[in-house]
Amino acid sequence: MTELHELDATAQSEALRAGDVSSVELVQHHLDRIEAHAASLGAFITVTGEQALERAAIADSTLRAGDAPAFTGVPIAIKDLTFTRDVPTSMGSLAMRDFVPPVNAYVVDLIEKAGFISLGKTNTPEFGLSSYTDNDIVGPARTPWDTTRNAGGSSGGAAAAVSAALVPMAQGSDGGGSIRIPASACGIFGFKPSRGRVSVGPLGSDWSGLAVDGPLSRTVRDGAALLDVLAHPM
């Protein structure tokens, strides 16, 4: 029998709509996997389990009522460089460890609008400024294929989480390889969209103007689906 975490996000959405599983069950299953494996992989800086379960209960009500957004109740994770309202967003830096943004990045609004439920913030190097993931908060992110080796960066925590099936897909960002390098190191699919394809609102791009948000997933169809969610102007 296929385990829930072995399904990609599209299949998890189908199972939720068919009533084969509830969002609370699905989210709890992935939270259990995070508890068991995330620390050894350095995948997450912050886990928002209580908030995720609350949102999962709401998602189940929405699903029962019908006409729910496409990915209602499906787990996801957000990179810790990405502003997330009322959730600690350290940017991989001890200096920013207690920073809690007052607003969402627009991509987070779009992810939530599509019905996804974030399970937390994934590991990234300090301010995303390296091609490997390591910092003084939680240490290195490791590829599940060989935990003696780094998961790559700067979306290394996201790639490790997806590769180890802690979440079916994750949001990352890429200026000079920060989605593509960890996707390669972790054996998953990653895509950097062209600049302008995904909004950098409401705060604008990084100092270089090169960084673009994009998907990390285990299947191409999931990556394409998340890009469809993200590729809207603010």
Question: How would you concisely characterize the structure shown here?
Answer:
The protein is built from 7 helices and 6 strands. The chain has 234 residues and is an alpha+beta fold.
The fraction of residues assigned to DSSP E strands is 5-15%
Overall pLDDT confidence: 96
Helix content: 25-40%
Q: What structural class results from the helix and strand content? A: alpha+beta
Structural notes for this entry:
- 34% of the residues lie in helices and 12% in strands.
- It contains seven helices and six strands, in the order ααβαβαβαβαββα.
- The termini are far apart.
- With 234 residues, the chain is an alpha+beta fold.
- The strands form two sheets. Strands 1-3-2 form a three-stranded mixed β-sheet, sandwiched between helices. A three-stranded antiparallel β-sheet has the order 4-6-5, with helices on both faces.
- It has helices spanning 9-18, 23-41, 49-65, 106-113, 156-163, 180-186, 220-230; strands at 44-47, 75-79, 117-122, 169-174, 189-190, 212-217.
